[in-house]
From TrEMBL:
Composition bias type Basic residues, residue spans: 169-179
Region (Disordered): 1-25, 159-179
Amino acid composition bias (Polar residues), ranges on this chain: 1-15
Keywords: Membrane, Transmembrane, Transmembrane helix
Superkingdom in the source lineage: Eukaryota
Organism from which the protein derives: Hericium alpestre
Protein name: Transmembrane protein
Membrane spanning residue stretches: 263-285, 297-318, 345-364, 370-395
Length: 489
């Protein structure tokens, strides 16, 4: 029967797991006669797991005790993110992820060793859930580090967080052959950075569950392990409560990133369109002297000016949005906000419109075939109408949102406008007369269609009966009297 001796043993510091790993072999542990070697290996595995937890805990505590002299000075004009990226923060993030992976490895080894024990399904399940939660935290940690230090830490798929060196086929084979409580955990679903505090809280609960499952073995009792894991749970809860203070920061970051990506896309499209306009200008810049050729050059030069303005204003807005020292929206003049937010899209639309008009005029000024000119004009008018209609719809949606503070949709506003318009005295009478006239026209078309169908069926029956009469003619004339109009009489 294994004996324990936890009497008189207390860790030097409740959160110092090295004390447990150093003193526990002398003060507490598993003692057995025939199974002394197996218990020693399992105890060594547990101590290695606790050392990994200690390393992870100490890294977090050391991060909070940095010297204030290492803090950045904001007196210069450098961006804070650039200052952090120049230091060793990226390497520190990689080291933290490596320690998390080492902890996951020790948990896996512990699960493999615990499979030899009886009634170990609880500890196996708890270890697997602990590894699964640790994998999710590692993924969120890496995504956050990649957003903060994009030049140091790169984004990786969810599957590569667990083991970056294993290919898809090997990973699939490992999942299919591994035991249910030892297989590599995967990340299922989308993880939001807003869930970081909740994930740490759940990780603390999984740690306590792991401790309870460990204490279910009557042969194992170690107060030092209990105190260390409970202290680690307290640290996790404290970190989770601290992270709750920053709730909403990922949402703000996502909104700013979304606005910056829109401006970047506009800049890319405007730059590409400038290249297209500059290429087409090579065919018409030397065609002068006639009104059509001069109009073509005028529209295409104007299109190029607007496209360049759209690209430059997009880059200007992108720089302004990412600037640390920019003023809030309510501290900026309205015309500056409108110019930064709306001018790139407006200039790009005007550039496309001018280029389309110049293309139609170029088809006539270059004396193309009338079929080519007509097709170009028709399709340009069709596409321009769609562009104008959609642009008007977007502008109307913006106006309705600003007027009604988001309480009414554009369709509802159009319905209200139509009801008010139909309330003017002449319009209801005209609407009724128009409805009656349209109903009469529809009924007239219906009667005409029915008469045409009847006439068609009558003619079809008439012509379909003629062959049958001709087929019966010779047989019936042999038994009938000769006619007065017979040619033989």
């Amino acid at each position: 029967m294994p004996q324990t001796n936890p009497t008189g043993f207390t860790p030097s510091y409740p959160n110092d797991l090295n004390a447990v790993g150093a003193d526990a072999p002398a003060s507490a542990g598993l003692r057995s006669g025939g199974l002394h070697g197996g218990n020693t290996r399992r105890r060594q595995t547990l101590m290695t797991l606790l050392d990994a937890l200690n390393e992870l805990s100490k890294d977090e505590s050391m991060g909070t005790e940095l010297d204030l002299s290492l803090q950045p000075s904001f007196e210069d004009d450098r961006d804070v993110r650039e200052w952090f990226a120049e230091g060793d923060k990226g390497q520190g993030a990689e080291d933290d992820l490596r320690r998390v992976n080492n902890l996951d490895k020790e948990l896996r080894n512990f699960s493999n060793a615990a499979r030899q024990l009886g009634s170990s399904v609880g500890i196996l399940s708890s270890a697997f859930h602990l590894r699964e939660r640790l994998t999710q935290i590692a993924y969120l940690f890496r995504e956050n580090a990649a957003d903060l230090f994009p030049r140091k830490v790169s984004h990786q798929p969810k599957e590569s967080i667990v083991s970056p060196n294993i290919g898809p086929r090997s990973r699939k084979r490992a999942r299919s052959k591994a035991p249910p409580h030892v297989r590599r955990p995967l990340i299922v679903g989308d993880l939001d950075p807003e869930d970081f505090p909740a994930q740490l809280g759940w990780f603390a609960r999984e740690v306590v569950t792991f401790l309870h499952c460990l204490n279910e073995f009557p042969e194992f009792t170690d107060e030092g392990v209990n105190a260390s894991i409970i202290a680690f749970e307290g640290d996790l809860k404290y970190w989770a409560s601290c992270l709750k203070t920053y709730e909403g920061v990922p949402t703000i970051r996502f909104a700013q990133k979304h606005g910056a990506s829109n401006l970047l896309n506009l800049s890319t499209v405007a730059t590409f369109f400038s290249a297209v306009t500059a290429t087409t200008l090579q065919y018409s810049f030397d065609m002068t002297g006639t009104p059509l050729s001069d109009s073509v050059n005028a529209f295409w030069f104007t299109s190029m000016v607007f496209s360049i303005a759209a690209a430059v204003n997009s880059l200007l807005g992108l720089t302004w949005k990412q600037a640390m020292y920019r003023s809030p929206g309510h501290r900026v003049p309205w015309w500056v906000l409108i110019w930064i937010k709306r001018s790139p899209l407006v200039f790009l639309v005007l550039s496309v419109a001018c280029f389309s008009v110049g293309l139609v005029l170029f088809a006539y000024s270059s004396k193309q075939n009338y079929v080519v000119s007509t097709i170009t004009t028709v399709f340009t008018a069709f596409s321009s109408f769609g562009l104008a209609a959609v642009s008007t719809w977007f502008a109307s949606e913006r106006w309705v949102f600003s007027r009604h503070k988001g309480k009414k949709w554009l369709e509802d506003s159009l319905d209200d406008f139509w009801d008010k318009l139909m309330g003017i005295p002449p319009l209801p009478w005209l609407a009724d007369k128009t409805a009656d006239l349209s109903q009469r026209i529809i009924s007239l078309f219906a009667h005409t269609r029915s008469a045409a169908v009847n006439a068609s069926s009558t003619l079809t029956n008439l012509f379909s009966s003629r062959p049958s009469l001709d087929a019966l003619g010779p047989s019936s004339s042999e038994n009938s009297l000769p006619s007065a109009f017979s040619p033989g009489l």
